[in-house]
Design brief:
The chain has one domain. Helix content is about 65%, strand content about 0%.
């Protein structure tokens, strides 16, 4: 539903990568249990900026970006190992394109 509303307003879509799922759920909990919207706003802002950085025009290249930024890591295992979702920057994207 979020993406339908975003698209209707010409805004970028949001995906929540697997590794970011715990962050998202905790932010939802903060809103629903404590009426604290700030965490959800920050979480969705980061996820929207992350989603916008991924080149979705080529499935295989998008998958390389997702892998390089830890998007597929299991949230529980990632938390135990200190693995976080990494925002793709221009250097990372250029390096991935060179190897693609």
């Amino acid at each position: 539903m979020i993406n339908a509303e975003l698209v209707a307003e010409n805004e970028g879509r949001i995906i929540i990568p697997t590794v970011y799922r715990t962050n998202y759920l905790m932010a939802l909990k903060a809103l629903s249990h404590n009426q604290q919207p700030q965490a959800l706003i920050r979480t969705l802002d980061f996820a929207q900026r992350y989603t916008a950085k991924v080149d979705w025009s080529d499935k295989n290249f998008a998958q390389k970006i997702l892998q390089a930024t830890n998007a597929f890591a299991h949230p529980t295992e990632a938390d135990m190992q200190g693995i976080r979702l990494v925002m793709p920057d221009d250097t990372l994207l250029a390096d991935l394109k060179m190897g693609y």
